[in-house]
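Troubleshooting log. The previous structure file for this entry was overwritten by mistake, so regenerating from the original sequence record. Sequence copied from the archived sheet and checked twice against the printout by T.R.
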Amino acid sequence: MINELAWYKLLNVKGLGAKSLLFLYHTIKNNAIQVNDIFDMSENDFYHTFTKFGSGKFSRVKYENFQELEEDKITSNFQNLINNNIVILPLNDSRYSNNIKKRLKADAPPVLFCKGNLSLLNSKNISIVGSRDTDDYSLNLTRNLASNLTKIGFNIVSGYAKGVDTNAHIGALQSEGTTTVVLSLGINNLSIKSDFKKNNYEEKTLFISQFLPFERWSGRNAMTRNKIVTSMSEAVIVITSGPAKDKKGRMSGTFDAGKSAIEMGIPVFVLNPDNLQNSPIGNKDLINIGGIPFDNVNDIVNSFQNKSLINRLKVPKQMTIF
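Regenerated output below.
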């Protein structure tokens, strides 16, 4: 049985981060230990079981941190999550996304906070990503593309940012399809956009966050979130992308998402930049490292209707990822 409260308690342990949580997860799995048992261990048993804790890169993870938790506060916050229909999914939950586990391996988030249609975690997913600030043509194409892909059975995954992301979600919902929203902040800070409310989103949407419930948005979280957006899908579609880094040295989240997908061997389809008035540099660069160009909605929808296409596509071996 999955003890959600015990996992939530772990997330409140001082010094316990993503890497140490993964070590803990694999240790309890290999030793057939229940998560709740950790909090009742003696100090000697704790360090005997979790041999890396208390030293080296895990020096901040100490036995006393597990004993000094504010139990009442944690239980109250946990109950609030349950009352708000938020589900805590640790890696050992059978509902956790198989694609995320398979592709991210040791980098898979130890816990996902989810709200909505949980079946979408392991549905037939396609990710659509793109810039926040782009032209009307690209936004209309995004909605049309998402709409048509839902009609042939795909769930649309994106990151809820303004611009392409939001239009991908809305395009799916407007066609009575489904969509998965991958958040770059804690799920308690989720604000439902008005366009979602207009399209009866409740049963057709899944919200996912890998961050603590009250964590606020940050650029770093947005970049981290991108790997979840891409890893859970059968393919990634890039509408518009900036260069890897702009003149000020700021990284493009869309470019990073496309590049990460290519590195994971996921087919990445990139809108042909020659079709756009202001040809996006990132689109050209992604095509140069293995992205597959497409010209219009019909081209890509027809391609996805060929069920064997995804399995045949591979990232070209001669391409180098920079």
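The chain has 14 helices and nine strands. Archived copy saved in two places this time.
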